[in-house]
Amino acid sequence: MIHLIRGFRDILPGEVELWQRIETVAKDLFEHFSYREIRIPIMEKTELFARSIGEDTDIVEKEMYTFADRKGDLLTLRPEATASIVRAYIQHKLYAEDPVRKYYLVGPMFRRERPQKGRYRQFYQIDVEAFGVAAPYIDVQMIFMLHTLFNRLGVGDTQAHLNSLGCPQCRPAYRQALMALLDKVHAQLCEDCRRRKARNPLRVLDCKVPACQQAVADAPAIVDYLCPECRDHFDTVTRSLDALQVPFVLNKRLVRGLDYYTRTAFEMQTGALGAQSAVAGGGRYDGLIEALGGPPTPAIGFAIGFDRLAEIVGQLQGSAPSGIGLFIAALGPAAQEKAFMWLSRLGDQGISVEMDFAGRSLKAQMKRADRLGAGHVLILGDAELQKGMAQLRNMTTKEQQEIALDGLVETLARELKK
Ligand code: AMP
Known about the structure:
By secondary structure, this protein is of the alpha+beta class. It has helices at about 15-30, 45-55, 60-65, 80-90, 135-150, 170-185, 190-200, 210-215, 230-245, 290, 305-315, 335-350, 360-370, 380-385, 410-415, and strands at about 35, 45, 65-70, 75, 100-110, 120-130, 160-165, 250, 260-270, 275-285, 300-305, 325-330, 355, 375-380, 390-395, 400-405. The strands form three sheets. An eight-stranded mixed sheet has the order 1-5-6-11-10-9-7-8.
């Protein structure tokens, strides 16, 4: 038999209900803050990701699913959503009428990472982006929405980790100060970090190798190097988060793995399952839209790891698969034919309904009704057909009542929607 690809997975009914619930809560929240759903292809030209994410990031260097199609064009399965949404914004000139555009997207992303618990090669993200707003309030709105979403899903104990990455005006001075330290600790750094040091030194702060973490423990903080505009921006963000009672901590080591981030960078951490872990990450990327050929446009966004979030919510709440409304136990071909007509009309009336087509015994059918969590079972055999009545059994109270076959669909629709 052929198995699925390593690092990929199936999300089966039973678990899917949890994903649907999370998605509904998230979409409802975003819609209330005037974000609208956008759907974009899962594949783009490789160049889009290489240019936007940055050639010297792990994603572009090692993790993208890239292949040449039959004509030799280089294509990539999207490793994240921002680049494609920005591409759509520029391509359709969505900025022309109103530069302020707010989007959300839920869908699969692909990264060829080493598979491990909670890390997949096809994983899902809930992605939110806001274009055209330079004001720090939109940064606050992003973090506030994340905080609110986790609360609504019952994930307490969340904390926003916050940093500012400055801007092209103030970052060079910081970079210089950081480089001075990195030169001193060069010998302690891992091979990756030695390379990062030359091309993207901020990313050394983010390295998970303990020796590197120790080497940069005393690194200068970017927030001490901010220009007055970036300082003001950051102060407004922290002040407003305080006012909205969103818990956060400053984390001077928080940098984003992607090159295009400026100013506010954030991560949502939760201790819900013991160890602290990041469920979402995001930040401002004021330079990207222009870099990809659009007009200069401030932008900010975040991505929630859906797999991780579902795991947390599932463990906290348990998944409660909902049962169907009605099972029709039809005995004999004549009853089966009638039952199938009713089933079709009841489904159309908004009743969740199922029946057997195998002509099995009443006992076997009742067993299946139980497994499906049916609220009611309608029992219909030759005797009932002749009498013009069927038995309706309430599976919770075990009470049984006779109902007339005449007007049965209407009676059931009324009865079961109570
Ligand atoms: P990023 O796009 O790298 O900032 O990641 C945002 C969130 O997506 C992270 O906080 C993770 O929860 C989630 N994530 C990233 N990569 C994976 C993966 N390979 N498998 C599962 N979740 C992931």
